């Protein structure tokens, strides 16, 4: 086997990687020892900003395979025929912790997917929960501030979290899921994924359908209790990473059954709830799950930084046959992600191998940092042109969407019923699950001022008085004297 020599980044042989060049055996070092300068300078640039949320994550490649023909709903190439397999990338994450955070923390898990389809990349950037804490993107940065460190103490603040939640009744549904068993999965293999928002599908006849995406784990749901997690975090901070990496490395490929719920376009105005409200699910009995395929993860990345830390997912990445919906949160996200990537990864982040579509990319964007894949020898660097540059793709225009109403700031409190769906969820819990749920909430309220706890218990009481009673019991708090204290709107 021939020896491979170290080189500088300019490709020149590097004489010594362990000894600096010095004037005499005891130094000082010479400024001309540029290999040392280059090495130190590179180390200074080894990090990019971590994601502002979902900073700690794990990822793997795999395949999405169609098992049912849904061309009646969508002309997207990814759904073209039974048996069609599309390569894809998944990145799972926790939301609040920094890049070094422990995996076994109670938190929502991110479930971000990039499908390298024949018509470009389709990204579905979801969570392991079917709903979210807020329904207006205007509230997202404030919500995230409550999940991150307090500006003065530099510690997480339970008071801030419960203050925000207790003043935002639309969060009740997601809060109920977060403090249920599903809020602390044993690993990424043991949880469902959801697109969460309502998206749209459109078919070759240019008919639109509203759709929800579900990814049902075939590994079964597994969770840790708070006490188990404490012990596990003491042993390892990388349990989800280790579980996913080791399973795939050993050939035990995790799989999810991919399902959709479908609503005809005109039905959206007839149902008794706002189908574009991400704090709500579509009940299964009215919108049964339709099984459409299977997702399998079967290939670990070769280099974590290059392929997972630099992976850039965005809900704005859609393809013909799949579209957005009026969901206000989704609308906000369509802007936020690509903007984050241009800052975090760089202007030409889409050209990196992990992000690059598996089809030709043609547009009139031009230069900027790291422009390494510019089109070769072209005169078509502006539009319109008479040199046969790329032209519009009218077949990619989605069916027109009828909109109505007056432009103003609409009250985000919605239809006022933030209670029925968490109530339906609580009713699904067995007694032991209810007991753990009460205990998990109580534990997370440690140190929270009493008036905030009372306000939150007032909200829980509207979901089911048994919840408020159960949590109060765990907190050893007496029943309040006088009228109920639920003062948050709703
Ligand atoms: P169903 O009884 O048909 O569905 C209940 C759903 O709840 C199942 O999808 C189940 O997932 C899921 N589930 C069970 N335990 C938990 C938990 N601790 N946290 C989150 N999800 C859980 O009823 P409905 O469709 O009428 O929904 C009733 C409630 O179930 C909703 O209000 C919502 O809170 C929750 N839910 C509903 C979903 C939907 O899309 N309709 C999706 C997920 C949750 P699984 O089958 O994987 O065990
Ligand atoms: C990551 C913004 C709501 C799921 C991010 C990032 C931003 C962001 C800026 C970091 C992106 C990066 O640097 O790579 C927002 C805004 C929201 C919102 C503004 C609301 C208006 C949601 C919702 C979901 C979600 C509702 C799930 C349904 C994710 C996931 C990631 C992420 C999974 C990590 C993606 C990855 O693995 O790289 N979000 N988010 N977010 N968000 Fe959101």
UniProtKB/TrEMBL annotation:
Keywords: Heme, Hydrogen peroxide, Iron, Metal-binding, Oxidoreductase, Peroxidase. Residues 7-391 form the Catalase core domain. InterPro entries: Catalase, Catalase_3, Catalase_clade1/3, Catalase_core, Catalase_haem_BS, Catalase_immune_responsive, Catalase_sf. Its EC number is 1.11.1.6. The keyword Oxidoreductase applies. It is an enzyme of class 1 (oxidoreductase). Gene3D superfamilies: Catalase core domain (2.40.180.10). This is catalase.
């Amino acid at each position: 086997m021939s020896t491979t020599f170290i080189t500088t980044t300019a490709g020149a042989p590097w004489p010594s990687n362990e000894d600096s060049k010095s004037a005499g055996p005891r130094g000082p070092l010479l400024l001309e020892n540029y290999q040392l300068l280059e090495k130190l300078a590179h180390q200074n640039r080894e990090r990019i900003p971590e994601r502002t949320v979902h900073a700690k994550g794990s990822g793997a490649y795999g395949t999405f395979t169609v098992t049912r023909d849904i061309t009646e709903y969508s002309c997207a190439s990814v759904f073209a025929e039974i048996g069609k397999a599309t390569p894809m990338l998944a990145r799972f994450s926790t939301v609040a912790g920094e890049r070094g955070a422990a995996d076994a923390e109670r938190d929502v898990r991110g479930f971000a997917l990039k499908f390298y389809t024949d018509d470009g990349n389709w990204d579905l950037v979801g969570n392991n929960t079917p709903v979210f804490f807020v329904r207006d993107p205007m509230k997202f940065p404030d919500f995230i501030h409550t999940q991150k460190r307090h500006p003065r103490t530099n510690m997480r603040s339970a008071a801030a979290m419960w203050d925000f939640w207790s003043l935002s009744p639309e969060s009740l549904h997601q809060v109920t899921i977060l403090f249920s068993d599903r809020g602390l999965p044993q690993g990424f293999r043991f949880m469902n994924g959801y697109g969460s928002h309502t998206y749209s599908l459109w078919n070759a006849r240019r008919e639109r359908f509203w759709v929800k995406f579900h990814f049902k784990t075939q590994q079964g749901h597994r969770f840790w209790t708070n006490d188990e997690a404490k012990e596990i975090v003491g042993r390892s901070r990388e349990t989800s990473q280790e579980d996913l990496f080791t399973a795939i490395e050993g050939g035990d490929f995790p799989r999810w059954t991919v399902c959709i719920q479908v609503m005809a376009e005109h039905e959206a105005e007839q149902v008794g709830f706002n189908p574009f409200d991400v704090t709500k699910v579509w009940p299964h009995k009215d919108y049964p799950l339709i099984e459409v395929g299977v997702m399998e993860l079967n290939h670990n990345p070769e280099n974590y930084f290059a392929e997972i830390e630099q992976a850039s997912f965005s809900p704005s990445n859609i393809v013909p046959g799949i579209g957005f919906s009026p969901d206000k949160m989704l609308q906000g996200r369509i802007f936020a992600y690509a903007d984050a990537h241009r800052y975090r990864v760089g202007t030409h982040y889409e050209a990196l191998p992990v992000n690059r579509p598996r089809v030709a990319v043609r547009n009139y964007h031009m230069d900027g940092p790291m422009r390494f894949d510019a089109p070769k020898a072209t005169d078509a660097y502006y539009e319109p042109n008479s040199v046969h540059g790329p032209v519009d793709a009218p077949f990619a225009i989605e069916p027109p969407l009828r909109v109505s109403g007056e432009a103003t700031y609409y009250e985000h409190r919605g239809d006022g019923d933030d209670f029925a769906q968490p109530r339906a969820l609580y009713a699904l819990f067995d007694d032991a699950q209810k007991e753990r749920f009460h205990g998990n909430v109580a534990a997370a309220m440690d140190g929270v001022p009493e008036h905030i706890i009372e306000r939150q218990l007032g909200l829980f009481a509207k979901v089911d008085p048994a919840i408020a009673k159960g949590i109060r019991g765990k907190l050893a708090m007496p029943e309040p004297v006088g009228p109920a204290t639920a003062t948050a709107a709703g």
